[in-house]
Design goal:
There is one protein chain. By secondary structure, the chain is mainly alpha-helical. It has a domain of 96 residues. 68% of the residues lie in helices and 7% in strands. It contains three helices and three strands. Strands 1-2-3 form a three-stranded antiparallel β-sheet, with no helix packed on it. A hairpin with a 2-residue loop joins β1 and β2.
Length: 168
Amino acid sequence: MTDEKKEGMTFEPADQAGTDSPEPAEVKSTSKDPIPENIRTVDAVVEGESRSDDHMTEFGFWEKFRHGVTHSYHVAADKTDLYARVGKRRLKILSINRTIDRSFNELGEKTYNLIAAGSAGALEDDLAVGALIGRIKDLEGELTAQEAEIEKIHHESREKAETVKTEV
Protein backbone atom coordinates (compact mmCIF):
# COMPACT_ATOMS: atom_id res chain seq x y z
CA MET A 1 0.00 0.00 0.00
CA THR A 2 1.09 3.59 -0.57
CA ASP A 3 1.56 6.38 1.95
CA GLU A 4 -0.91 9.29 1.88
CA LYS A 5 0.53 12.77 2.55
CA LYS A 6 -1.49 15.63 3.87
CA GLU A 7 -0.13 18.96 5.18
CA GLY A 8 3.08 17.70 6.75
CA MET A 9 1.55 14.49 8.14
CA THR A 10 2.26 10.95 6.97
CA PHE A 11 -0.39 8.31 7.39
CA GLU A 12 0.97 4.80 7.44
CA PRO A 13 -1.34 1.78 7.59
CA ALA A 14 -0.77 -0.44 10.64
CA ASP A 15 0.21 -3.48 8.53
CA GLN A 16 3.08 -1.50 6.95
CA ALA A 17 4.23 -0.20 10.33
CA GLY A 18 5.47 -3.65 11.20
CA THR A 19 2.61 -4.80 13.41
CA ASP A 20 0.27 -7.66 12.77
CA SER A 21 -2.63 -6.13 14.71
CA PRO A 22 -5.58 -4.71 12.76
CA GLU A 23 -5.32 -1.27 14.49
CA PRO A 24 -5.99 1.98 12.63
CA ALA A 25 -3.24 3.75 10.76
CA GLU A 26 -0.57 5.51 12.82
CA VAL A 27 -0.01 9.22 12.40
CA LYS A 28 3.58 10.42 12.14
CA SER A 29 4.39 14.12 12.14
CA THR A 30 6.79 15.29 9.43
CA SER A 31 6.99 18.84 10.74
CA LYS A 32 10.16 20.02 12.49
CA ASP A 33 8.37 20.85 15.75
CA PRO A 34 6.93 17.77 17.50
CA ILE A 35 4.47 19.87 19.59
CA PRO A 36 1.30 20.92 17.73
CA GLU A 37 0.60 24.65 17.50
CA ASN A 38 -2.51 24.62 19.69
CA ILE A 39 -0.69 22.83 22.55
CA ARG A 40 2.25 25.21 22.39
CA THR A 41 -0.16 28.14 22.60
CA VAL A 42 -1.95 26.77 25.67
CA ASP A 43 1.42 26.09 27.35
CA ALA A 44 2.54 29.63 26.51
CA VAL A 45 -0.61 31.07 28.06
CA VAL A 46 -0.14 28.97 31.19
CA GLU A 47 3.50 30.07 31.46
CA GLY A 48 2.45 33.72 31.07
CA GLU A 49 3.75 34.34 27.56
CA SER A 50 1.86 36.69 25.27
CA ARG A 51 -0.86 35.42 22.95
CA SER A 52 -1.39 36.30 19.34
CA ASP A 53 -4.59 38.04 18.19
CA ASP A 54 -5.78 34.77 16.65
CA HIS A 55 -5.81 33.08 20.03
CA MET A 56 -7.46 36.07 21.68
CA THR A 57 -10.47 35.47 19.46
CA GLU A 58 -10.60 31.87 20.70
CA PHE A 59 -10.78 33.07 24.29
CA GLY A 60 -13.21 35.80 23.20
CA PHE A 61 -15.38 33.11 21.65
CA TRP A 62 -15.61 31.24 24.96
CA GLU A 63 -16.39 34.43 26.84
CA LYS A 64 -19.14 35.24 24.35
CA PHE A 65 -20.38 31.66 24.57
CA ARG A 66 -20.45 31.81 28.39
CA HIS A 67 -22.25 35.16 28.27
CA GLY A 68 -24.79 33.77 25.79
CA VAL A 69 -25.49 30.71 27.91
CA THR A 70 -25.84 32.82 31.06
CA HIS A 71 -28.15 35.25 29.26
CA SER A 72 -30.26 32.37 27.91
CA TYR A 73 -30.53 30.91 31.41
CA HIS A 74 -31.81 34.21 32.81
CA VAL A 75 -34.28 34.66 29.95
CA ALA A 76 -35.60 31.12 30.49
CA ALA A 77 -35.93 31.72 34.23
CA ASP A 78 -37.79 34.99 33.63
CA LYS A 79 -40.14 33.37 31.12
CA THR A 80 -40.80 30.48 33.49
CA ASP A 81 -41.67 32.93 36.25
CA LEU A 82 -43.92 34.88 33.89
CA TYR A 83 -45.80 31.79 32.72
CA ALA A 84 -46.17 30.51 36.29
CA ARG A 85 -47.62 33.81 37.49
CA VAL A 86 -49.97 34.11 34.50
CA GLY A 87 -50.96 30.45 34.75
CA LYS A 88 -51.85 30.88 38.42
CA ARG A 89 -54.11 33.84 37.57
CA ARG A 90 -55.74 31.94 34.71
CA LEU A 91 -56.56 29.05 37.03
CA LYS A 92 -58.20 31.56 39.38
CA ILE A 93 -60.17 32.96 36.44
CA LEU A 94 -61.36 29.46 35.52
CA SER A 95 -62.44 28.88 39.11
CA ILE A 96 -64.27 32.22 39.23
CA ASN A 97 -66.01 31.52 35.92
CA ARG A 98 -67.10 28.11 37.17
CA THR A 99 -68.48 29.68 40.35
CA ILE A 100 -70.32 32.32 38.29
CA ASP A 101 -71.83 29.59 36.13
CA ARG A 102 -73.05 27.70 39.22
CA SER A 103 -74.49 30.91 40.67
CA PHE A 104 -76.35 31.67 37.44
CA ASN A 105 -77.73 28.14 37.39
CA GLU A 106 -78.88 28.52 40.98
CA LEU A 107 -80.38 31.95 40.22
CA GLY A 108 -82.22 30.52 37.22
CA GLU A 109 -83.56 27.68 39.33
CA LYS A 110 -84.80 30.07 42.05
CA THR A 111 -86.34 32.39 39.45
CA TYR A 112 -88.11 29.48 37.74
CA ASN A 113 -89.48 28.19 41.04
CA LEU A 114 -90.82 31.63 42.01
CA ILE A 115 -92.42 32.19 38.58
CA ALA A 116 -93.87 28.66 38.53
CA ALA A 117 -95.39 29.24 41.97
CA GLY A 118 -96.99 32.45 40.70
CA SER A 119 -94.82 34.70 42.81
CA ALA A 120 -93.08 36.57 39.98
CA GLY A 121 -93.68 39.88 41.76
CA ALA A 122 -91.84 38.59 44.82
CA LEU A 123 -88.73 37.94 42.74
CA GLU A 124 -87.06 41.22 43.69
CA ASP A 125 -87.94 40.79 47.36
CA ASP A 126 -86.63 37.23 47.65
CA LEU A 127 -83.49 37.23 49.82
CA ALA A 128 -81.94 34.20 48.10
CA VAL A 129 -82.24 35.83 44.67
CA GLY A 130 -80.77 39.09 45.96
CA ALA A 131 -77.86 37.22 47.58
CA LEU A 132 -77.15 35.34 44.35
CA ILE A 133 -77.18 38.55 42.31
CA GLY A 134 -74.80 40.21 44.79
CA ARG A 135 -72.54 37.13 44.72
CA ILE A 136 -72.42 37.18 40.90
CA LYS A 137 -71.54 40.88 40.88
CA ASP A 138 -68.72 40.29 43.38
CA LEU A 139 -67.36 37.39 41.31
CA GLU A 140 -67.47 39.50 38.14
CA GLY A 141 -65.45 42.20 39.94
CA GLU A 142 -62.94 39.58 41.06
CA LEU A 143 -62.74 38.28 37.51
CA THR A 144 -61.97 41.78 36.20
CA ALA A 145 -59.26 42.19 38.86
CA GLN A 146 -57.58 38.91 37.85
CA GLU A 147 -57.63 39.88 34.17
CA ALA A 148 -56.11 43.26 35.07
CA GLU A 149 -53.42 41.46 37.08
CA ILE A 150 -52.53 39.31 34.06
CA GLU A 151 -52.26 42.43 31.90
CA LYS A 152 -50.05 44.05 34.54
CA ILE A 153 -47.75 40.99 34.57
CA HIS A 154 -47.48 41.07 30.77
CA HIS A 155 -46.75 44.80 30.85
CA GLU A 156 -43.98 44.33 33.45
CA SER A 157 -42.53 41.51 31.37
CA ARG A 158 -42.45 43.65 28.23
CA GLU A 159 -40.75 46.49 30.13
CA LYS A 160 -38.15 44.11 31.53
CA ALA A 161 -37.51 42.62 28.09
CA GLU A 162 -36.98 46.10 26.61
CA THR A 163 -34.55 46.93 29.45
CA VAL A 164 -32.58 43.73 28.81
CA LYS A 165 -32.44 44.44 25.06
CA THR A 166 -30.97 47.89 25.66
CA GLU A 167 -28.37 46.44 28.07
CA VAL A 168 -27.23 43.77 25.59
